[in-house]
Amino acid sequence: MNHSTLCRNSVQERLAPPWFRDSVSSRFLAQRPFVRSQYFQGRPESCTLVKYKTTSQPTSNSKQATTDRHDKELPLEASSHASTSTLSPASFQSAMASSVPSSNDSYVDLSYGRSADVSNASTAPTSVCASPGVLNVKLAQYGLTDLMLPIIRDELVSIAEAAGKMMLDADPSIDMSDTKNNSSDRVTATDKAVENMIQSRLHKAYPQYSFLGEESFQDGDRLSDRPTWVIDPIDGTLNFIHGFPNNAVSLALIVEKKPVVGVVFNPFRGDMFTAVKDQGAYLTKANGTTHRLPLRSVPAPMGSLNDCLLAIEWGNQRQGPNWDLRTSVAMQLMSSKSNGGAMVHSIRSNGSAALDFCYVAAGSIDAFWEGGVWIWDVAAGWIILEEAGGIVASANPGDWDPTLEGRLYFGVRSAKRTEQEGIVQELWQLMGDRKFDF
Ligand code: IPD
Ligand code: CA
């Protein structure tokens, strides 16, 4: 191994300062089977060194499975332990100089810089990780690393663009529009064709990952801990059929039941929302400009529901206890204070839960309360919101840690934590002891 192995591509080579490259001796590199590096863009401030120790060495087959697509140096085998140290440049240089290579180090992460450097970036970063150690321990069990997540995001962006083209080219008025559960629960030929395209591209690129998509979902399908694509080919199918330009393709990679990459693309507006775990959320607009989310770097104060613009969707169940709860809470939220209501600024029903999450991530809507939508509607939006500083509680009172598959979501935009919690508590109080049952 040599410096060209350490600095795997020309962008990184250009960004890596000589002191960083020179302090990693060829002796250090030569005795480790896998060395990865990442360079935070911006002013060098500190270095992170992560050592992974595996319980077993990668076999040539398992190594091949991972290296085919990404990186010649990454092992597929699980790492059992990791140690992380953040060092100043001087300490990093001296640690490298005196480092005694261990045969237990299956690979080593090296990085410099600080994540805060990208807060004003005009393009989504190629590789920035706030806490590479913790995330990487989890990812490594599945042959993944934080460095691969932006590569996966870029692949999802490319697939989303292809899906968007199919949506723009389609004429839903001549599509076969079938009903599913009732007349407002519909599917078009384009939904199915887009899902097929997405599934085949993902399968070709990542054959080892599981797949869960709205149109191929079978009753009883559940997430496992393994990496799983969760996708909705068109979220907002009714809007699509009616030509109302608020619908999106939603693509997420889930690991251990949590989203680590999310992409939501509305081709009719050209809005591409993306997020990578620990690397922030971004909106790239049709004019090519990229903005870190939330759009306001200092979010406005959010005192109570009375200050808020909320998103609530109506779903397709129009009777029964869930419908009664949804409509009565909506009524309470809108009603004046003198009538016992919360007097929110207003309620919006945009017709796409995925985009509702993104609008909350952007900060243009304060919160999104929803029971009854499905994992594919929210998986990508969830990480986009969290990476934008938002939180996701349950739509039902009392649960601050809802699951992706639970069908109960209450997303609140970036704000002070006490303000976010205040909004959640206020709405839960309006619900009293009533709960959705999905
Ligand atoms: C729909 C949207 C909508 C919600 C519906 C969903 P689909 O998804 O997310 O916001 O109210 O319940 O079915 O069917 O267009 O993918
Ligand atoms: Ca759909």
Structure description:
It is a single chain. The chain is of the alpha+beta class. It is 33% helix and 22% strand. It is built from 14 helices and 18 strands. The longest helix has 22 residues. The structure holds D-MYO-inositol-1-phosphate and calcium ion. The site of D-MYO-inositol-1-phosphate (IPD) has 14 residues, from strand 8.
In CATH, the topology of the largest domain is named Fructose-1,6-Bisphosphatase, Chain A, domain 1
Look at the structure and name the CATH superfamily of the largest domain: Fructose-1,6-Bisphosphatase, subunit A, domain 1
Strand order of the largest sheet: 7-8-9-10-11-12-13
- What spatial form do the alpha-carbon principal axes imply? globular
Q: Calculate Rg over CA atoms.
A: 23 Å
Mean pLDDT: 78
CATH level-1 class of the largest domain: Alpha Beta
Beta-strand content: 15-25%
User: What is the number of beta strands?
Assistant: 18
Uncertain segments:
1-16, 30-46, 50-84, 103-107, 112-132
What's the structural domain tally?
Answer: 3
Determine the N-to-C terminus distance.
Answer: 55 Å
Which architecture of the largest domain does the CATH hierarchy give at level 2?
A: 2-Layer Sandwich
Structural class comes to: alpha+beta
Number of helices: 14
Bound small molecules, by name, code or SMILES, are:
D-MYO-inositol-1-phosphate, calcium ion
- Mind summarizing the main beta sheet? 7 strands, mixed
Fraction of residues in helix: 25-40%
